[in-house]
Amino acid sequence: MNTISVIGLGYIGLPTATVLASRKKRVVGVDVSREVVDTINRGDIHIVEPELDILVQAAVGSGHLRAVLSPEPADVFLITVPTPLAFGHRPDLSYVESAVKSIASVLTKGNLVILESTSPVGTTEKLAGWLADARPDLSFPQQRGEASDIRIAYCPERVLPGRIVHEIVANDRVIGGMTARCSQAAIELYKLFVHGECIATDVRTAEMCKLAENSFRDTNIAFANELSMICDQQGINVWELIKLANRHPRVNILQPGCGVGGHCIAIDPWFIVDGAPDLAKLIRTARNVNDAKPDWVIGKVRRAVEDLVSSGMDIKDVRIACLGLAFKPDIDDVRESPALEIARLLATRHEGTIAVIEPNLCLSEMAAEQWMIPMELDEAISWANILVLLVDHDEFRRIKPVLGKGQKLIDTRGIWTETK
Ligand code: SAJ
């Protein structure tokens, strides 16, 4: 296992390639984007993730990591490409398929192929089928079992954005080999850098394990979000309620918010729904509850605007400040961000001015979107008639603003709301 090829140099592929390079392996990263390849070969990074820049610089500088546009022969191929949602919440496996087809011509006897991308159950078997079709001269586990020329495994990534460099080493890994020998070979690879336990299982269990983890979280967040809407209607402070309920030794309710964002939790449960549409009732409902939360927040803002208008203000003079745009606290990632969606929709619907405050993004980047009027936190607090707190960033947590007469607060994270 001296040469390792990582296909797809995004949020998972680049950190994985880098950590393998730091273990003195020869790592060839492959990406279809010339810009990504050039950036990495300069020792820079194209994503934002704490500590990763220094590691990439060192890995490229030492000659252990290099990026290329198309696959070269290697001992191990790790596939870490996106698996987005297509129309109708269906999994889009086109990136996996083209990554698999791109390595087929350079595969040689003894190679290990690992899929890390979050995938619907059955994808690794499909992958094996695509490779077998492309390379009839080689044998694969589905035909020859333990005696196959190529070993194939599924091993999902489980790292938390913002903590990837730490978690990629520390977390346990679930390793689903197509045969016991495939699992063993994959474990050998992960043992090069994983300090957590590497646990072997079959491919379908490993695929479902990743989907189940994120669906578990989504379902639990949906419970908190549903509770927050019920409590709002019934005049109960949901944050206080959750604190009290969580004093029960077997209750641990998560935190409500303005919706569920990011590129994992808002997507992966649909893969389970797609595979078992008649059975996955709770998982589908949880997705719908979380997806509906931004609209509920917008409804609250609309009612606050109406209150101000009925007390004599001209609607064009109603100033709204949206605090936070990222999909979760203390990161600059706005992918699938409900906070960004809310701010954008308010900006198109509201006749007055909308300002945005996002301490983790630079103002010039924010101004790239025409509707955005960036503002500093202090200024926004005194400027706005309605403050909509969307993300519980540290900068917001650290203060407790005293609102002026007539100023309204919609606190979707419960950090500025008084509790008893
Ligand atoms: N959220 C809430 N309330 C909570 C917790 C989270 O509203 O109590 C929201 C966040 O604000 C955010 C969304 O959920 O919008 C997702 O954030 P997250 O921190 O729960 O998860 P991700 O998407 O950053 O990372 C998840 C992780 N999965 C689990 O915790 C089960 C991570 O370990 C996975 O590796 C990652 O998905 C992935 O790549 O699949």
UniProtKB/TrEMBL annotation:
InterPro entries (alphabetical): 6-PGluconate_DH-like_C_sf, NAD(P)-bd_dom_sf, UDP-Glc/GDP-Man, UDP-Glc/GDP-Man_DH_C, UDP-Glc/GDP-Man_DH_C_sf, UDP-Glc/GDP-Man_DH_dimer, UDP-Glc/GDP-Man_DH_N, UDP_ManNAc/GlcNAc_DH
Occurrences of domain UDP-glucose/GDP-mannose dehydrogenase C-terminal (ranges): 321-418
UniProt keyword Oxidoreductase, yes or no: yes
Record-linked Pfam families: UDPG_MGDP_dh (PF00984), UDPG_MGDP_dh_C (PF03720), UDPG_MGDP_dh_N (PF03721)
Keyword Zinc-finger: no
BP GO terms, sorted: lipopolysaccharide biosynthetic process
SMART domains: UDPG_MGDP_dh_C
Entry's Gene Ontology molecular function annotations: NAD binding; oxidoreductase activity, acting on the CH-CH group of donors, NAD or NADP as acceptor; oxidoreductase activity, acting on the CH-OH group of donors, NAD or NADP as acceptor
Gene3D superfamilies xref list: Cytochrome c1, transmembrane anchor, C-terminal, NAD(P)-binding Rossmann-like Domain
Annotated keywords: Lipopolysaccharide biosynthesis, NAD, Oxidoreductase
UniProt similarity note: Belongs to the UDP-glucose/GDP-mannose dehydrogenase family.
NCBIfam families referenced in this protein's UniProt entry, alphabetically: NDP-sugDHase, PRK11064.1
Protein name per Swiss-Prot or TrEMBL: NDP-N-acetyl-D-galactosaminuronic acid dehydrogenase
Protein's organism: Paraburkholderia tuberum
